[in-house]
Amino acid sequence: MSSTHRREITGFSNPTVKYLRSLREKKHRKREGVFLAEGLRLLTDARECGHVPKTLVMAKGRDPHPLLDALEADVAAAGGEVIETSSDILSKITGKDNPQAVAGVFAEFDTSLAALDRSKAKIWLVSQALRDPGNLGTMLRTGDAVGAGGLILIDDCADPFSVEAVRASMGAVFTQQLAQAGWDEFVDWLRQGDGQLVAASLRDAVPYRGAPYAAPCFVLVGNESRGLPEDYEMACDLRVTMPMKGRADSLNAAVAAAVLAYEVLDTLEA
Amino acid sequence: MSSTHRREITGFSNPTVKYLRSLREKKHRKREGVFLAEGLRLLTDARECGHVPKTLVMAKGRDPHPLLDALEADVAAAGGEVIETSSDILSKITGKDNPQAVAGVFAEFDTSLAALDRSKAKIWLVSQALRDPGNLGTMLRTGDAVGAGGLILIDDCADPFSVEAVRASMGAVFTQQLAQAGWDEFVDWLRQGDGQLVAASLRDAVPYRGAPYAAPCFVLVGNESRGLPEDYEMACDLRVTMPMKGRADSLNAAVAAAVLAYEVLDTLEA
């Protein structure tokens, strides 16, 4: 493949390096409306879902790969920029000691509820005040696995476009739909159509095994340390609880969502 | 309560502060045979499981609490040290911006397989080459929730005594037994008694729902990016697979362990 359209960057202080590096901070991502994703597998997932990076950054000395060639051709065809740089500089950009050989800058998605088509899937994950980007990415990954339509982030959650969340999603940030909304806005939207809202809860709850799940089922989990506000739980159609055999009374939020989502999947597929 | 046995530390450069801060690094923990845990809830869990800190560090200006008084009395009675310091210094010790009001230094536990009594529980979690301390702590927390006996770490795993793992375990590091061993050593130990080894796997696997689980059931998950080596999977008594409806072929390791462990729990309790 011709490399004439590639731009090479050799200096750490290059303005493009500074720009790319700044995208690890939320305020810069929001201002630019873009986010960073790294790794050939993730970028290939993105490509197959129709997401072409605006900028592709490749490490010199990488192993050649036909998927990388295809990616580069797409970026060039779409008028994007292809940058070649050192592993060290790529490492500085992504903040990872052992960087992948490639990273991309993508336009952020529309995360309005209006863009969600609830009829597209039987399961949707909903998370309230989720603070940990790793948990957020893990929930996206779980959503992909259970065939969910996407993840709805309620109230003040971690940024789904952070490097940590994108990394933990293992590409699911491109396959799952994402929406962000306040609680009232979400409930208004939900009640305009079909949808069962199910909370993992300890209050007035039935066992999660064999509960009467119905599609489209919206699986709601709360904040990592505080759980869900009581009035949110009470607004749900169903409250379910998982066995707690030990001293603790709760699971990690991403774990709770996964155990519950797999149970819902089993019920809805039966 | 009398405070005459308390020692106050006001300077960041105090040798005790340096010592406590050094415990965030594995090499220092191993040399000293101790680890750090933070937060009243976690330290209370520890206390109720019979673990008294060698050193208790409390922030000045904390809210008084009867559980904290009880903790302090235990530490003093056991000949341990009670230190009072500023929130800023406590924050420097634990590496957390919003530190809890209290932290403790505990002796590391015996993590030999010989110390495990497999008859104590129907479920045991086993993790191979688990690299992420957050995942490790989450698995401990899940183990507590499903009534597992403990977590067995195979090959080169993250340190269960790291601040991150202890924090993510939400106290389960004190309620779950911990063992560390190489694969061959683990299999030798396992085959000396009852025990079904079950792998989350894609090879020659049966659906995880309704699989013939038997107690004591050892639930094995592999490394975050590589999964389990094929020969490890083939040494298992049962290989099970979870539905994967999306593009991905795997779940987060801690999520896979949890979904599987809850299924095993349901089967063994039926």
UniProtKB/TrEMBL annotation, chains A, B:
GO biological process: methylation
A molecular function GO annotation: methyltransferase activity
Domain RNA 2-O ribose methyltransferase substrate binding: 36-112
Keyword Methyltransferase in record: yes
Annotated transmembrane regions: none
Keywords, comma-separated and alphabetical: Methyltransferase, Transferase
Entry's family note: Belongs to the class IV-like SAM-binding methyltransferase superfamily. RNA methyltransferase TrmH family.
Protein name (record): RNA methyltransferase
UniProt source species: Aurantiacibacter gilvus
